[in-house]
Amino acid sequence: TKVKFTKNIFSSETKFLERYLASRNFDLIVYLSDGSIPVVASKLVVHFQFPVEWIQNSIKTKLKLLRVKKIICNSEFTKSLIDKKFSVQSDVVYPPVSVQSPASKENVIFHVGRFGLTKEGVNYKKQDVMIEAFKKLVDDGLKGWEFVLVIGVKRGDEEKVEYLKKQISKYPIKIVENPTREILKKYYSASKIYWHASGFGEDLEKHPEYAEHFGISTVEAMGAGAVPVVINAGGQPEIVIGGSGFLWNRLDELKARTLELINNNELWKKMSKAAVKRAEFFSGERFCKQLVEIIK
After folding, report:
1. pLDDT single digits (tens) 94-146
2. Using CA atoms, how far apart are residues 250 and 10, in angstroms rounded to an integer?
């Protein structure tokens, strides 16, 4: 009831003077940046959710930054790159993540992610890599487990996802496209283990944007009691700490850590509890307190 929507003054269709005058109606603007820095009449907080390595730190950009009250980022990973790019000292405000209580678990390994392609047409979300890793586990004798991939598919990528589906025939693997929130919650509840591999095998020094910038789906899975076995890149190492899951650098580590959890139920229970506890840190209450301190 306290939220009001207004015209998007940052639309490319809005002329500079119109935008500047309209911005005088606000005490503070929090701007989600795609790399651009707007010039406004009010106080300005700029929020970065991903690296913007393609943006030039020009004199014009530096002058615009002088008018910015605060820069905030969604992870230490993003912060390190934004600070270096713009020669600034930003603050980290982890996003608020709503989680559900753990429920009865099944022998399911789960993954959630968009279907994302690099400029060269490579799937940097690496659903294909995880499919092959799970198939290898099955070929080596794993029985009674299922791998479920929830994939956000946009128009134009359907054919590539159909190719993925052809790779999973005769294996206990399921691909779920663009599910409702209720279906997504069902899989979070049922899953024992959560996999993530964004950026694996990519040159993350050159293209850090191919790594997971934070990892909301990882936190959601942990909150539901799934133990994360996720790549040691991007924002994931900031989430998975204190025995709340496993980080891996090589595919043999992904498979080995997964088998540890499958073959040692006491270990899984211990790490599942730690995962739930860790997910509690990323609550909306914590987010609001941090944000209030910044915008005072």
Report:
1. 999 998 888 889 999 999 998 877 777 778 899 999 999 999 999 999 999 99
2. 43
